[in-house]
Amino acid sequence: MAAVVQQGESLFQSQTRSPCYYSLPESVYFDVSLIPPDALTAVNAVAGDAKKRQMDTFTKDENKDTPLTSYFGTKIAETDIALRAGARGPTVLEDFHNREKISHFDHERIPERVVHARGAGAFGEFKLHTPLTGLTTAKILTDTSKVTPAYVRFSTVNGSRGSADSVRDPRGFAVRLYSDEGNWDIVGNNIPVFFIQDAIKFVDLVHAVKPEPHNEIPQAQTAHDNAWDFMGLHPQTTHMQQWIMSDRAIPRSFRMMQGFGVHTFRLINEEGKSTFVKYHWSPHLGTHSLVWDEALKLAGQDPDFHRRDLWDAIEAGAYPKWELGVQIVKEEDEHKFDFDLLDATKLIPEDLVPVQNIGTLTLNRNPVDYFTEVEQVAFCTQHIVPGMDFSSDPLLAGRNFSYFDTQISRIGINFSDIPVNRPVCPFATNARDGAMNMTSKANRTAYHPNRFDALPTTAPAQGGFKSYPEVMAGIKERIHGPKFNEFVSQAQLFYNSMSAPEKKNIVSAYQFELSKCYETVVQQNAIDRINLIDHDLALQVATAFPSVKVGEAKPNHGQKSAFLSQVDGKNQIFTAAGRKVGIYILPGYSYAQVEPIKLALTAASVIVKFVAPATGPIKAGNGNTQIAEFTFENSRSTHFDSIIFIGGDDDSYPKQLKQGRLIHAVREAYMHLKAIAATGNAVSWVTDICLPGDFSPEVKTTESISLENGVLFAPSVGIGAEFTAKYLDGLSKHRVWDREVEHIAA
Ligand code: HDD
């Protein structure tokens, strides 16, 4: 890349100086030859996307080359013992290094996010494949030749920054696309609707769902009186309640979640015509969830379960992908629905307006430094680009104020200067000063217009952002549109669309949550609300609460959507790819039984992990070894989508299996509805010791493979294509729902 930064100018200045660079190519503001070598670690001017190249210029490996210095460059000879008067004497104030070190540490934290404090981020790219020509002028939605750098932060909502990943909560799904026309942030959730309709209620909502103020309990959950008091008193939460009591609120992985922009937005075309749009992200791995018992246990067994899952997948090159889909509604059709498009507690059923997929998001790069790249990322719903606009959704309007505002107290007014927040397109503002301003701005004026040919100038002719000139007329009053007052219809639609096991999980979730409420009035209000959705649901939930009464049956419209169930919904994807399987082996295991399974699973993009009494090489009966990464003690069945028990070459092998931890692993995975497999002489151990009475006796003796209750047995056959194909099929189904249905019947 040519040296193009102007004489005497730092690289930093060249990126941010006033906008005479507006129309110059990217090479103008990245000149690696001019970057001081110690300012960079992994600068590769050619490789990587524009965002990576930009971030690299701000990345520094402090363990490399330079000896330890003070923050201002003085080499330090001693950093482990403070300066003191005599070996046992007082520490002296003079020790600037000691003071600097402790003082910086004292100020290391910034306030955690008021909501969505716990999160994980990754970089990637977005590629449009189906242009929305004629609907918008936004290049990111019309130019299929462009690969746009992307960043996503997933989060829980309720918990603190160090809380567990697997709690029951909506998940934040905040996407930033560093487009050529500016950053576009879609700050969404994995649930397409929200608790409330108006941003003014957000403060009450968050105060109610967060830990109760007197004792700061419970952490990261809504299972408490205040949360359900709020929900009982706010009919507008009825629909969202269904989603958070469903399996959607305990996703299996960030990689297996849908994302939704939630609000109705606008697209604006060349003629200035507006079209309504809702955004959807659909995961290539399908939308799948944990089971509740698993989620509860994982909160302790691996609080980083989702963060680790995302990190490991990206490190392994198994890059998660989503389709960006749009639901398009013509401006003239705005009022044809029985709900208001401006009401964020309602979705547009896909049965009415199909989702059209238009592009693919891929996450392919983990952060280098979590604090600067995940904690300091600052999303704002108002970050849109020309060719788009907002609708008058009152929830969105408040968000457009709140995000910018919160970043000021969280990070500071110059938060846009932080590398992860910078656009990759040229940018120039007349903003000046403020705390921690990082850029020396060489332009002599910071107002518009000015005598220097009016730079920075506005760019209407170059497609500068213009608000959609919506015709507005109305009386100034505190009121919503009339359709905002219907709260039950879509909650019923959701419940009616669930499969039998999903309905059962909703009942259990309500029972769990309300059992943690100690005030009967709270439980009663909640049951009254559930009764409006479905009488039978209310009766089932109420079995756990003898002091509450279920009112008279109210009508349920009986309608279903084909798209909402994760078990049998249209467009759901079932694949073994990306799943994590634990293969349990003990010394003397049969190498001949392991090897074909390992090869077939790896070929199907399954993540295979070996679990053994110890980590490191584990010897098979034939002397070969296999490296185990997990031990029986440091992992649980909850860490895996499925577990496999391999038999041993010797008849004494099953004796080694007779230990509580392993028997529990089989029982637990079985209870969590996971596919299980056993080979050779591990089969009779599963049928006789772990799960006696659940299988027919033949599965132990048959010469062929047998599959019962979602457990695959190969007692005496070689492991070949038939076994691995059947196993992969079972794994791809995500859960053995029949097992749950049997339990429901029981
Ligand atoms: Fe929000 C963060 C999603 C309503 C105020 N919100 C935040 C994040 C996500 C959402 C994903 C985390 C961003 C990140 O990873 O940094 N919020 C939503 C969705 C909503 C919603 C999908 C409804 C459709 N939010 C909402 C309202 C308000 C806020 C109505 C305020 C009136 N949200 C915030 C915030 C946060 C935030 C206080 C906390 C930290 C931050 O913004 O950067 O401003």
Automatic annotation (TrEMBL):
Q: Tell me where on the tree of life, at the top rank, the source sits.
A: Eukaryota
> For this protein, what reaction is catalysed?
2 H2O2 = O2 + 2 H2O
Q: Might you give the EC number(s) for this enzyme?
A: 1.11.1.6
* Cofactor(s) this protein requires: heme
Name of the protein this chain belongs to: Catalase
List the active site: 116, 189
Ranges where the Catalase core domain occurs: 69-456
Tell me yes or no: is Cell membrane among this UniProt entry's keywords. Answer: no
> Alphabetically, which GO biological process terms does the record hold?
hydrogen peroxide catabolic process; response to oxidative stress
Query: What job does the chain carry out?
Result: Catalyzes the degradation of hydrogen peroxide (H(2)O(2)) generated by peroxisomal oxidases to water and oxygen, thereby protecting cells from the toxic effects of hydrogen peroxide. Occurs in almost all aerobically respiring organisms and serves to protect cells from the toxic effects of hydrogen peroxide.
